[in-house]
Each structure stands twice: as structure tokens, then as C-alpha cells.
Amino acid sequence: MKESDLYLPLKKYLESQNYEVKGEVCDCDVVAVRGNESPVIVELKLSLNLDVLLQGVDRISLSSLIYIGIPHDSKAFKKKRKLALKLLKMLGFGLILIDHIKNKVEVVLDPIEYKPRKIKQKKEKLLGEFQSRVGDPNLGGMASRRGVITSYRQKALKIALYLERHGDCKASQIAKDLDELKAREIMYNNYYSWFERVGKGIYSLNAKGKEEIKFWLEKKPSS
């Protein structure tokens, strides 16, 4: 399949909307003109990738009506549909899916001015994690979250190390000595399965905890 295979179904569709359509005009794959309206520019690609987005950015100086045209069965788009549409909205681009076998065209998104909503809760969560994390223990760009040290994990590690040194302890004593108000909550919820309740309000560090904290101790926070 070639990018040019997408052209004729798209041309037919645009002409049905009373546009005059021509291909390869001043480096634009498709240009459609209707009366005195701003021209519609469509860049054709076999997948939604960085190249076609950059082409779209380059066309913004020519028109406010920029579309990306891709095959209707693009696997990459289907896999990341929600995020892909969000990105296109941010750029102000439209999206057209083209079935060159059945000569069908679906306009999924029209170009609009995108104004992202500021979600207060998410912003507060971001800043809260930033402020509560001790030092800078992670390398930016880590491919997997397995090795990410969050502020919650730092607190759990602090409690685990305390239990390793002192043995079974009351949650209230740990909270006091470590100045950690959520010590009991962390041990009770036991998110990492490191802790065991051995008595009323008394916790210990289990074998799994003793083994796993060795891994995390190697990832010491930077100052």
C-alpha cells in the first residue's frame, strides 16, 4: 500500500462537499478549495508518526484547516487512539481515516483550537509527590516503573529499616521515633507485602521485606 492510494477516495469525498481538489501543491499532499474559505490541507501518511506531525506544523502558516489522513485500519492509531486524538487537538489538527478498498472516508476530528483543562487534583498530586519525595532518587526517562522510588516507598523503606534494626514494635512507637504520622496506615495496608501484624498494634518485617529492601537500599536518594 502506498500513500498515494489514499488520495482518490479522499478527493472523491472532498469533491462531494463541493471542494475543488488538487494533489501535490507547494509540497502539500492534498489541497481543497471552496469559494473564499480557508483552504483545507491534508497530509497523507500510512501511520500517524512524527514526520506527518512535523509536516502539519509546517503547513500551519498556510491554513488553519490542517488534516492528517491515514488508513482506517492503522494499528498504531487504534492502540493509542485516545492519546493520539488528544495530541492532534493540542496541535489544532484534524484527522481523517481512509479506506482505499471500499472508497470510504471518516472524518474523526476537525481542526479546533485546543484549550487543555487544568485538573487541580492531578496538579496537587504532582506537586505533593514532588515536595514529599526525599532527594532525587530516580533517573529521568526510566523505561520501567519497577525501579521508581516514590515518596510512599521511601516511607515504607524507612519503616522497614526501623523494624529490621529494632525487631517487632508498636506502630505508635515507630510513628513517634520516625516522626511519620502514617506509619500504622502504611504497615496496615501493607502495599508491598513487607509487614506482618504480630499483635495488637504490633508489627514485624517479614522475610519478603528483608529481601526486597536490599534491592532498594542500593538506590539511595541523591541530595
Walk me through the structure.
This protein is α+β, with helices and mostly antiparallel strands. It has two domains: 107 residues, Trna Endonuclease, Chain: A, domain 1, CATH 3.40.1350; 84 residues, Winged helix-like DNA-binding domain superfamily/Winged helix DNA-binding domain (Arc Repressor Mutant, subunit A, Orthogonal Bundle), CATH 1.10.10. The protein has nine helices and nine strands. It has a six-stranded mixed beta sheet, sandwiched between helices. A three-stranded antiparallel beta sheet has the order 7-9-8. A hairpin with a 4-residue loop joins strand 5 and strand 6. The longest helix has 16 residues. The protein is elongated and about 80 Å long.
Order of helices and strands: HEEEHEHHEEHHEHHEEH
CATH topology of the largest domain: Trna Endonuclease, Chain: A, domain 1
Q: What amount of the residues lies in strands?
A: 15-25%
> Structural class of the secondary elements?
alpha+beta
- What is the CATH architecture assignment of the largest domain? 3-Layer(aba) Sandwich
Number of strands: 9
| Shape label | elongated
N→C terminal distance: 54 Å
Task: Please bin the fraction of helical residues.
Answer: 40-55%
The first-level CATH class name of the largest domain: Alpha Beta
Strand order of the largest sheet: 1-2-3-4-5-6
Largest sheet: 6 strands, mixed
Number of domains in the coordinates? 2
Q: Stretches where pLDDT falls below 50 for ≥5 residues?
A: none
Return the average pLDDT rounded to an integer.
86
Evaluate the radius of gyration.
28 Å
